[in-house]
Specification:
By secondary structure, this protein is of the alpha/beta class. The chain contains 13 helices and ten strands. Strands 1, 2, 3, 4, 5, 6, 7, 8, 9 and 10 form a ten-stranded mixed sheet that branches. The radius of gyration is 21 Å and the shape is globular.
Length: 374
């Protein structure tokens, strides 16, 4: 267990104007069956009652610490928390989510038993109303359960493509520090988890997986769109940072494999971002990512084995005919959109290929559009 001076786990909780949810979040930590932890509440300049709620926990329970800082965004808050952490392991809990009572115990036991740098579990999608409900969300599926692996060297690359649920795992603190795994301090909070998640799987030599759901991931607070031109390209900044991370820290054949994975991840993230953008921002965004993806294809970074027929058609349209790509995305938003998208991208032959692949093919990603295991 921990030494006399330091807890076994440091839990980082980034906080910004979440008074509606914070009490339940922090109470779920106070109620853990495992108690050898500290909670670092990083208040990012909240203007509501959030700081007072966190301060109340710190006053009542010595395991809770409140760190106040001026508002500078999610990535900066997370890095402050990582800098303050003293535990052997680091856990992350978003302030609108909450842990199951046995979450830390399950993850610590798994990590210790496997001498792992990362222990990863599943989580629940959670709605508080109109009727409270939980739906399991599998990022760890049967082929991963109970395994301890080096993801970048494993033939099974599916974990790279699952939802970046950085809060359903724990991480050795010395592993994060040794590998320079931190958060990019870009504005907004939509993409920094993607970079952190990728770096973890890229760098880990020993990652282990459990089937248990350890956390409720709140869906009531999900609706958002991007209306700011400055934030529209944050996803591009994140992928540029991931690319630089691979180039600086790995050598072939790891570099080749990780760059191929990044290119496939990038397409998914760019499409997700495009669909969230204010329509007026979309043409410029497409122009930017079209140039970027064309350069990546020309440089040989794309691994076509990771692209299903529809994804390959999206990539080709982006690179060679951005207007056709935009028509396909408009079609996708209409009734019967999946079929109309295939027709817009490649006509009946692509639709036939996509249907054949769905019936007979095998995607190495084993991941649906929501980032869950198939």
């Amino acid at each position: 267990m921990s030494d006399a001076k330091h807890p076994l786990v440091s839990v980082v909780v980034p906080i910004y104007n979440v008074e509606r949810y914070l009490e339940r979040c922090l109470s779920s930590l106070a109620a853990q069956t495992f108690d050898d932890f500290e909670v670092i509440c990083v208040n990012d300049g909240s203007t509501d009652a959030s700081a007072g709620i966190a301060r109340g926990f710190a006053d009542r329970d010595g395991r809770f610490v409140l760190v106040d800082k001026s508002n500078s965004g999610y990535g900066a808050s997370m890095n402050v928390g990582l800098d303050r952490a003293q535990g052997r392991y680091v856990a992350i809990l978003e302030s609108d989510d909450f842990f199951d009572p046995q979450a830390l115990e399950l993850l610590v036991l798994a990590a210790e038993a496997a001498s792992a740098e990362v222990a990863k579990g599943n989580f629940w999608l959670y709605w508080s109303g109109p009727n409270e409900r939980r739906v399991p969300f599998p990022v760890v599926d049967a082929p991963l359960v109970g395994r301890t692996t080096c993801p970048r060297r494993d033939a099974d690359v599916a974990i790279f493509f699952r939802k970046s649920s950085i809060w359903s795992g724990i991480y050795r603190r010395d592993f994060l520090e040794r590998n320079g795994i931190r958060f990019l301090e870009t504005p907004g909070a939509s993409y920094q988890d993607v970079g952190f998640n990728f770096k973890v799987w890229a760098a880990a030599n020993r990652a282990t997986f459990v089937a248990d759901c350890v956390l409720c991931y709140r869906q009531d607070n999900e609706a958002s769109s991007v209306k700011s031109g400055a934030k529209a390209y944050c996803v591009c900044d994140e992928y540029q940072a991931m690319t630089e991370y691979v180039r600086e820290r790995f050598s072939p054949p790891d570099t080749t494999k990780l760059m191929g994975i990044l290119e496939r991840m990038k397409l998914d993230s760019y499409l997700w971002n495009y669909d969230r953008l204010d329509p007026g921002l979309r043409p410029a965004f497409v122009e930017r990512i079209s140039r970027e993806m064309a350069e990546d294809v020309a440089a040989g970074r794309v691994d076509r084995s990771l692209f299903e027929p529809g994804a390959a058609a999206d990539l080709d349209a982006l690179v060679s005919d951005p207007k056709r790509f935009e028509r396909s995305r408009r079609a996708y938003g209409a009734p019967g959109g999946a079929v109309l998208r295939y027709l817009a991208l490649g006509g009946v032959p692509l639709l036939a290929d996509a249907l054949r692949f769905k019936a007979l093919g095998h995607s190495v990603r084993r991941t649906n559009q929501e980032g869950a295991a198939l």
